[in-house]
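Recall the central idea of this unit: under ordinary conditions, the amino acid sequence of a chain determines the structure it adopts. In this exercise we apply that idea directly, starting from the sequence alone.
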Amino acid sequence: MTMGFNRSLAMLVAATALSSGAIGQQAAPLAPDPAAVAHPDLWPKLPLKRQRDAKVEARVDQILSRMTVEDKVGQLIQVDIASISPKDLETYKLGSILNGGNSAPNNDEFAPAPEWLKLFDAFYDASANRSDGRPQIPLIWGTDAVHGANNIVGATLFPHNIGLGAARDPELIRKIGAATAAETAATGIDWSFAPTVAVVQDDRWGRTYESYSEDPAIVESYAGKMVEGIQGSVGGDFMKPGHVISSIKHFLGDGGTGGRDQGDTRVSEEVLRDVHAAGYRSGLVAGALTVMPSFSSWNGTKMTGNKSLLTGVLKDRWGFDGFTIGDWNAHGQVPGCTNEDCAPAINAGLDMFMYSGPGWKQLYANTLREAKDGTIPAARLDDAVRRILRVKVLAGSFEAGRPSSRPVSGKFDLIGAPEHRAIARQAVRESLVLLKNNGNILPLKPGANILVAGRGADNIGQQAGGWSITWQGTGVTNANFPNGQSIWSGIDEAVKAGGGKATLAVDGSYSAKPDAAIVVFGETPYAEFTGDRPTLEYSPEDKSDLALLKKLKAAGIPVVAVFLSGRPLWVNPELNAADAFVAAFLPGTEGGGVADVLIAGRDGKPRNDFHGKLSFSWPKRLDQYVLNKRDPNYDPLFPIGYGLTYGQGATVPMLSEARPAVAAGDQNALFVRGRVVAGARLNVMGPVQQTRVDRAAQEDSLRFAFAGTAPAGASIEEAKPIDITRESNGQLSLLLDYRVTGAPSGEVTLGMEGGKLASVPITGALKGELGQWRQLAVPLRCFADGGVAMSAVSKPWIIATSGKLNLDISSIRIASAPPGPVSCGVR
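Accordingly, the structure predicted from this sequence is:
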């Protein structure tokens, strides 16, 4: 029964208990669109360096012959550590575990490295504990080590891929892969979900920074080198101690979805092959052991269920004999599937499910039933298991033993090792792109008085970006990067060494006029789909960075802008307000690499010249995001390959700051700066008054005063229902920034409606100290488990109470929760 807020407030207030169990029925699978069926004979064969080894195959066959159907099905399943305990593996002999973006030992994202190794030992011991005479098959642990061992406190974090693409240095990529593998292996973890080889064609996509370039040739030149760095070179140090399994992702076409994560790449088979498959042409040749199919679709068909590509192209035509690992519950998006039941994906060529959630035992049971009744043919089951066993044999997993007993495990001095930091600092230097240097104000003289300003100057988390300890890169401080250096710290060090003086003032204030100012600013951290943007305009709702640049320039101070971003953005106003402009992208933890290029030596000459060249063209307009880079009429502000040096400068004239009309903004920002976003409205019902109050700016928050004389509430109602399925699947939360000024006298609930209403109790969260701004995070899964159709949410925020309550709200949005546990309600 649908419970509408305006129709039945009393029922809404009472709806604090969530329903559970499966929601809805499986859809009948549809025949794929002919445009989404690949023709393998049109794809070139690959000269793979790694060939089948008869001894390996014989060993795999011997193990497979001793396995029961139950054993085989277990190998097909990987479960997130937040959804399983070591004891579970005493009964269920699964193939793998992983730590998802927000998962960590003891539910602590800041857990020290020894805790990771300790937990892997516990999982491994339980998995190996069997007395039934059947084979003991080692468990492997997968992690997203996408720019270093980025889940581990103290790890060396390298520039994200977009910056590495600007470096144009394939050999550097191999070194980065090897360093990342060594730091990962120090915790015992033996499998990295990297590299990402997306060839991004629309920079609005929130994963643009995970792409080396919009140019397939650059991606192809890097992918194989990164695989060799992570796994070692075939015929040399392949899978020797200190190397880990790699996974090329996301197969295939994830960079062509029109800027929408988990979207649909609408291109011809020729474009899919020649553009989007570039990274596989070198990565598979280098011997990559696993491949991760994409969440996204090709011409309407989900990649995780596309047999013509997973089996026809990848395995049959290209000869890939490793295994495919699904993305986070991506199999549940295949027609005919749920997260707990998806034979169609296995039959299409998926070899291992990646699962998160409480229902993994259901997935096991359903897959076992389908393996026994022939829904999954025995030959397909054996092929999948054979591939998984082959990788484990090739990776040395059977001989490796207990994680803590391995040669590199426990060598925690590898994490943030000086030699790795030196590689990262080199990568920072090589990735910086000089877009403007009017008047040749760079490099700055070593003896100068330098003002360093901007919110990114002394912020290692911001310069590192997403996938930096926490999934979204949020909720971290400089203290969480004990082996890192902020950009400010690097500049201060370099200026002092040159006999000058550097002063940090985030707001740009100063007592004595400086000789020059370096302003470090840019995007705040984000990861997949929370980073999707409607346009390429930088910070459309907050122009304080621009104001800071203008203020300093108006004072006659030469201004150097250091721009942190995960993609090219429309920054014409900021370019106009700066004398020099450096695209630093997301340089990681070695901020000193920026100073290595900006600050001259004692002799006044550059210590290092600018090396980076744009791997993505830079937009001339904020709506220039449909990037048909192969169109000769495409007219960017700075083309791919652009990048000034100290010896080759160019004057950038004043740029147009015109803003054409664009579509509505981010649907996940529900209430911003005191207003609901365009396309939505705020409803109130019952005895509740609302007034505007200030938090960071004038009237940027709303105060709700519930009288307590009758049930009352407020809701945000969308003009059209919004689809937040991917956000729910990705473990995002409904985040509320609030301040209680009058304590609740009755039960308070927070709800969401889409076909059905589900609410959670939040009274306990509102009973803290009055007058303090706090944040509440309720996982979207709480509402999904309660029956809300996440694909058609009409009211994404509903608050209700029958008691008294004074509540100020400054922000409501859908985003990643800050580090720490979250639950479905605080009573």
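The two ends are 25 Å apart (CA to CA).
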